Amino acid sequence: MDFLSPRAQEHEPLEDAFHQELLDRLSLPAFSRLLGLVTEEVRLDYCRMRLPYVPQHEQPFGVIHGGAIASLIDSAVIGAIFSRLPQLPRKLATIDLHVHYLRPLAEADAIAEAWVRRRGNSIIFLAVEVRDSEGSVVAHGELSYAISAAPGTT
Questions:
Q1: Any residues with CB less than 8 A from the CB of 113 and at least 6 apart, and which?
Q2: Residue 150 scores a pLDDT above 70
Q3: Rounded to whole angstroms, how far apart are CA atoms 98 and 126?
Q4: What is the pTM assigned to this prediction?
Q5: pLDDT over 90 (residue 123)
């Protein structure tokens, strides 16, 4: 999925400098680096992130561990959330995370596309689809996040 997906086309591109700032910001968290997550694109209310295949992500039966996929889902939404925030929020936390595993993923990258369903004043609702490199959906996630504005903003 190295092309502009139909889902991405539904969202406006960001200004180049802000896009690069978000890509840099999203590469910082230690847990993301531990998993090897790569943010590929951020647009308004949208983010595409990849979990590259490594054998360490497999569970004993040779498929990618569900926890690795859930972590990808929970991480991919951050870019979509930040895409409309000029400053980091004071607080951002997962309230709710539901994952539906639709098919096993073996020896392949997982590519997540995350988008905002609705932004409230203090809660953001999001959805994520995870696909394999052939484009088949392997998992779907629904999330809600609590957010507090950055100090000095309303």
A1: 5, 7, 8, 46, 47, 48, 76, 128, 129, 131
A2: no
A3: 11
A4: 0.88
A5: yes
